[in-house]
Amino acid sequence: MTALSKPRILFFDSGVGGLSVYQEVQKRLPDCHYLYCFDNAFFPYSEKSEALIIERVNKICTHLDRLYALDLIVIACNTASTIVLPSLRQHFSIPIVGTVPAIKPAAEYSSTKHIGLLATKGTVKREYIDHLIEKYAQSCRVEKIGSTKLVELAERKLRGYPVDLNDIRTELSEWIMMPDLDAIVLGCTHFPLIKSEIQQCLPQVSHFIDSGEAIAKRIAFLLNEVKVRSKNHMISQVFYTKPFIIEDDLSECLHALGFEQFSLIHINS
Known about the structure:
It is built from 12 helices and 10 strands. The chain has helices at 19-28, 50-68, 78-91, 103-109, 121-125, 127-136, 149-158, 165-171, 173-176, 195-201, 212-223, 248-256, and strands at 8-13, 33-38, 72-75, 96-97, 114-119, 141-146, 183-186, 207-209, 237-240, 261-264.
């Protein structure tokens, strides 16, 4: 990959959780141009209707594609991925990569065949999840917890605020007393950001599994077939849809991840 042929990749999420996926991809593919957009005006997506999510994601991705000639889009949000991928793939000719809860590897890793899906309220209710369980985890007893609170805690942690383990224990209380629960799917891209805290609350669990590494491998494969649309150099940027105060800890974190500029984009509701 030459300096003049760096693919331009957009990561999209309602919040900062998609940074957990970005880190895995950037580690494997350090020479790409990266854009990250979080739709904080409509955070959290788990509380929004499917129609609104489809409209928002299509509108924002189209807007950024017109400005920056994207080569690949990553929907780094499990909730959005269970809804918007067919619509995006109809609209765009570039590769669209979604984020799917790692139910298959969890079922394979589990010795007790008792696993848990930790996701947003929206994700755990999707029919798509039932299909994944039926296809890959028929031999398992699958527990589900949908939590908006954990998403908010992950957002706060990245902004430099401490995480109270009691808040996490409250969200996971029904699992704490399940001694044979041995594999947990982190089915929201926010949750790897608080993985260490979740581990402390569920010491009986041997495997905490997310999709970041698998997505990085998939993107590396797809880029072999991508013809880069723009030869212009650009810096890695973060976009957001609602003004907010970028605290020092968040700014420092984003700079450490390679992002040099933060910009508000205006999207009509």
